[in-house]
Write a structure and sequence with these properties.
The structure holds 2 protein chains of 2 kinds. By secondary structure, chain A is an all-beta fold. Chain A has no helices and 9 strands. In chain A, the strands form 2 sheets. A 5-stranded mixed beta sheet of chain A has the order 1-9-8-3-4, with no helix packed on it. Chain A is globular, with a radius of gyration of 13 Å. Chain B is mainly β. Chain B has no helices and 11 strands. The N and C termini of chain B lie far apart (about 35 Å). The chains are: A mainly beta, B mainly beta.
Chain lengths: ~110, ~120
């Protein structure tokens, strides 16, 4: 199963776009990329997921490279409430229980 | 509002005692999960359940037990056999386990267990 690599921490100014990278160089063709975030001492929150195409929802955009070896989560206008740990996860199809959680990226939004 | 509730938020126990953590969901989800999180680390899967009266061990099931007698409830018991029980415990649910996409997991607020 693919594993992911994320920077341990990042800063972003409030109101700017936050771009969070994730490497998943061993991803298989049918594995999904998921993003969750966890605000301090709370349960994780689902953000977005994708397979091959770029995806956008009301929270964020997900850009997946053509070779699928990396992806970027974009928060278009970061607010202080976006300060959290962001987890990039690769999930095999048909095995929703098999989310392998790394340490994630601690994103700090600065005023 | 639909969601997942976990109680209590904080729990303190003496070493050697079993303790049961509650998890209830009103999302009508078939699948439920228990995770453990240690400081600065990601989540690790303890048990999961696809349907009532069925559950499977996750990666770190030793020292834990679960039951799934009702669709909406999935309690976790931390037994005295668990060597390092102090941790943050998270319950989650999803529509199903074997979907081909989507089926994101919804999480409860967690229970922080401290055993001394």
């Amino acid at each position: 199963d693919a594993k992911t690599t994320q920077p341990p921490s990042m800063d972003c100014a409030e109101g700017r776009a936050a771009n969070l990278p994730c490497n998943h160089s061993t991803i298989s063709g049918n594995e999904y990329v998921y993003w969750y975030r966890q605000i301090h001492s709370q349960g994780p929150q689902y953000i977005i997921h994708g397979l091959k195409n770029n995806e956008t929802n009301e929270m964020a955009s997900l850009i997946i490279t053509e070779d699928r070896k990396s992806s970027t989560l974009i928060l278009p206008h970061a607010t202080l409430r976006d300060t959290a740990v962001y987890y990039c996860i690769v999930r095999p199809p048909g095995r929703n229980y098999q989310l392998i959680w790394g340490a994630g990226t601690k994103l700090i939004i600065k005023p | 509002d639909g969601g997942i509730t976990q109680s209590p938020k904080y729990l303190f126990r003496k070493e050697g005692q079993n303790v049961t953590l509650s998890c209830e969901q009103n999302l009508n989800h078939d699948a439920m999960y228990w995770y453990r999180q240690d400081p600065g680390q990601g989540l690790r899967l303890i048990y999961y359940s696809q349907i009532v009266n069925d559950f499977q061990k996750g990666d770190i099931a030793e020292g834990y037990s679960v039951s799934r007698e009702k669709k909406e409830s999935f309690p976790l018991t931390v037994t005295s056999a668990q060597k390092n029980p102090t941790a943050f415990y998270l319950c989650a649910s999803s529509t199903r386990i074997t979907g081909v996409g989507g089926e994101e997991q919804y999480f409860g607020p967690g229970t922080r267990l401290t055993v001394t």
